[in-house]
Amino acid sequence: MGHSKDDKAESHERIVSVAAERIRESGTESPGVAEIMRAAGLTHGGFYKHFTNREELINEAVEHAMRENETDAAQVVSGADDPLAAFADWYVSTAHRDDPAHGCGVAALCTDVPHLGRPAQESYRAQVERYLARLQGLLASDDPDVRSRANVTLSAMVGAVMIARGLGATDRSDELLRDVLEAIQERRLLPPGRHVDGRREPK
Amino acid sequence: MGHSKDDKAESHERIVSVAAERIRESGTESPGVAEIMRAAGLTHGGFYKHFTNREELINEAVEHAMRENETDAAQVVSGADDPLAAFADWYVSTAHRDDPAHGCGVAALCTDVPHLGRPAQESYRAQVERYLARLQGLLASDDPDVRSRANVTLSAMVGAVMIARGLGATDRSDELLRDVLEAIQERRLLPPGRHVDGRREPK
DNA sequence: ATTATCTATAGATCTATAGATAATGC
DNA sequence: ATTATCTATAGATCTATAGATAATGC
To answer: Between chains, do B166 and A128 touch, taking CB under 8 Å as contact?
Structure first.
């Protein structure tokens, strides 16, 4: 047993980190307090010295899952010849499909977030904004429709990984990921005739 | 109490139909047997005369959710001036975002399916195939890359609805849906320079 | 007589709490 | 003395079962 304040901070971090993995793998409802504490090397009784209730842990775990992934993204694009291609390569991959526990929280938690409280929804929204800001930077900046294109690109990336996860590690799943990756890397999501009037009217 | 064989068949259908709604709204783990039976106007005790266990219901409910949505899709495109535009309009919409219970099972259940058994995974896979077959029919048929384009289009459609659900009914969410809808309707997901060599090498 | 549904409940699991234990840190 | 963690357990909830009830259908 360790009982210093540092130990407690380490324990807290470990619980949140483990929970962030489990909820991306099995959803926010599935893993129990006892299971998460066991995975963190602790017993379930001590849990309530760290969190007022389970929901508080889930909120911290959602925020952790979102930010953890974002730091990975920054490393991937830094110093790449084609940063957009590197970003897409990292995201739209079989490795990402097969390891949701350490992957994108926007993809893994999209179905859970509507049933969670404000803090988790805000963590989700903020991470979508960070992805969109990053994509706008990676797409040609002289395009009046960068934001629209970032929305389309993010949708295709997230959708591909989600459908691929539903299909499992099959040839069909691999093919879908590869087709979406190529479409992004070859800039096929660009408008064929450029729009010069900026944002169009919503129908 | 009604006790005829017809009544039982109706009860069975009602239980599966209600379950198909609840699992798309809250995931396959969340709704309990008692809750589903109550929503079907029955008590929980009779459940096991219809299903050997909860998992069997979930399998039937997943299959039901997938097929129900597919018949809606067929109606939407039939007789439309621009069937692809009509299909995208129906799928990439705020109405679809705000009503997962009656919406696409591929979107609603993608995170649950990997944790379910073979039958549910097969239902999921089959519905992805039906969507892709439909999209290949709606996209220009003289294109050697229709299949690739169907994969990209489906990913963008599903991804847009999933992210939009995570964001909730906000301006940002509406904008994302509108941008993806326009990209599909204006055929912006087409390659700018056509590829005549068919399928390219996987890198 | 058969059977679809209902009432009641057993057994398992989960969140949260209470009190004990064994370190830390003034 | 304080407190981080552990053991034990209360109370709620969930799946599944058993036996009772009240219709159907030969």
So the answer is: yes
